[in-house]
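Morning!

This is the sequence you dropped in the shared folder:
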Amino acid sequence: MLVTISWLKKNYNKYNELYFGGVLPDISFKISHSRKTWGYASYNYNRLSNKITPVSITLSNYYDSPEEVKLTTLLHEMIHIYDYATNPQHFICGGRRVRYDAHGWWFKKECRRLKEFGWDIEKYVTEEEKACSELSADAKRLQK
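The structure's back. Tokens below.
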């Protein structure tokens, strides 16, 4: 499957309520055609207010994957949005960027929490997820 903006919004809102207590902020959604990055979350930092604001989640349609792979990728990125929204000190402290592994202990703790609901979220796309995905029609056209 290939994701759409409406699919991203619908599932973000659904899983925000189910797994994050509805605390995730309204953000924007984007679709890329990145070959290497299956998804990413972003935030803005305002130096004047020393505040982090979660901004968006982007998922790639370079690969046509089963819906579960797309959902796992979305949930992975939602963990980052959750981190930005609830733990800004992980990223900025005293107006300075903090050395922080966004896939470190806190991320792993959230992955374990979501595993209780049947989700297997990893730092990277697994070999199994890659094996059940194929190039999208757009990606095939670009390779010609």
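Headline: The chain has a mean pLDDT of 93.

More detail when I'm at my desk.
O.
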